[in-house]
Amino acid sequence: SFIQPPQVAWASGALADGPLLRKSTRIQDLTHVFADENARQQLAGEQVVYDVEMLDTSPADGELYTGVTHLYPGRVGCEYFMTRGHFHARREQGEVYFGLRGTGLLLLQTEQGDARLEKVFAGSVHIIPGFTAHRLINTGEEVLSALAVWPGIAGHDYAALARGFRIRVFEENKRVQAKEVQNG
Ligand code: PA5
Ligand code: NI
Known about the structure:
three-stranded antiparallel sheet, 3% helix, 1 helix, mainly beta, binds 5-phosphoarabinonic acid, binds nickel (II) ion, six-stranded antiparallel sheet
């Protein structure tokens, strides 16, 4: 019952041929992001959960940022590796994601708390409206890479979802299981 998004052919998972900024997010950076905090603490803190490569473009009003997220396969306890997730600081600003390689889910959640999941795969196109928080989840066994384009003025608000999204995605009996949670 995941939403089937539109598709586009896409060639490659890696961003290249431009001035790039890179940021790695590790297990040790993701305190209280996963449901099982004890399981997180058992993992090597230096293990990279995701890398973001970003074009070094202007943040001026009207300009766009472009980045690729490489989300590695893995789990914390039974919960799949995922990005921290955020609203934009400028809540009305939207974003577009394109699936490049691997398989996963894009978790979207409105300010009212309505959450939905879209399948992510090579060629998938995701329109993230304004006022909608977003998080990538890698449910596969390979790297999940997705390209994102968003307004330079959008900014990130991580604090608004510090208690977590309303849906968490786990592997149970070798199947992908999405579960509604009250908070965190
Ligand atoms: O702009 C985006 O939404 C992405 O580039 C994300 O910032 C990226 O996937 C990393 O996720 P987060 O910012 O939630 O750590
Ligand atoms: Ni964003």
